[in-house]
TrEMBL record:
It is found in: Cell envelope. GO terms for cellular component: cell envelope. Its main location: other. GO terms for biological process: cytochrome complex assembly. SUPFAM superfamilies: Thioredoxin-like (SSF52833). PROSITE patterns: THIOREDOXIN_1, THIOREDOXIN_2. This is Cytochrome c biogenesis protein CcmG/thiol:disulfide interchange protein DsbE.
């Protein structure tokens, strides 16, 4: 009977490839979205309405924001790219909020409860409404397959940009300023 065995180096090589592939996937997941990823579709579609119980005891309802530019961000406290983009969102809300910009954050947490998310928001100086999502809002927006995911909703209530992955103030500010000019 013939028997065949692989040399020892083949198994080590295969294991090494798996490790390298995993590291590449991890690094790619934490990179900011490229301009190609932030172009969105050609045709704007209506943004589905939703209500979110916010951690400050209020309720955020998208339809109540009609006429304003809304940035809907799905994030989590355990998500490193989410943590990196929040300071940019805080800055944009500070700079453009009085012109009709409203950020809203939907925390999709694995295990953190309202107290942990509130403590995180305080630590990060989040200055816009946030609430814990149960997945139903994410489903209305086509499902969230990774975090962060951001949707920019124009003053007329249509999705103007879908941004999978992390974004930055430099990348999103020109779009927000253009949409705010449309309000006038």
């Amino acid at each position: 009977m013939l028997s065949f065995s692989f040399p020892n180096w083949v198994g080590s090589f295969a294991a090494g490839l798996l490790v390298v592939g995993g590291l590449v996937a991890l690094v790619m997941a934490e990179q900011p979205a490229s301009p190609a990823q932030t172009t969105g579709g050609d045709a704007a579609q209506d943004a589905p309405d939703f209500s979110l119980n916010t951690l400050d005891g209020g309720t955020f309802r998208l339809d109540d924001q009609r006429g304003d530019v809304v940035v809907l961000n799905f994030w989590a406290t355990w998500c490193p790219p989410c943590r990196r983009e929040i300071p940019d969102f805080v800055s944009l809300q500070n700079d453009l909020g009085d012109r009709g910009l409203q950020f809203v954050g939907v925390a999709l947490e694995r295990s953190a409860g309202p107290e942990e998310v509130r403590a995180f928001a305080d630590k990060m100086n989040i200055n816009y409404p946030i609430g814990l999502g149960d997945g139903s809002i994410a489903e209305k927006y086509g499902g969230v397959r990774g975090l962060p995911v951001t949707f920019v909703i124009g003053p007329e209530g249509t999705i103007r940009k879908h941004i999978p992955g992390m974004t930055t103030e430099d990348r999103i500010r020109p779009l927000l300023e253009a949409l705010l000019r449309e309000r006038s």
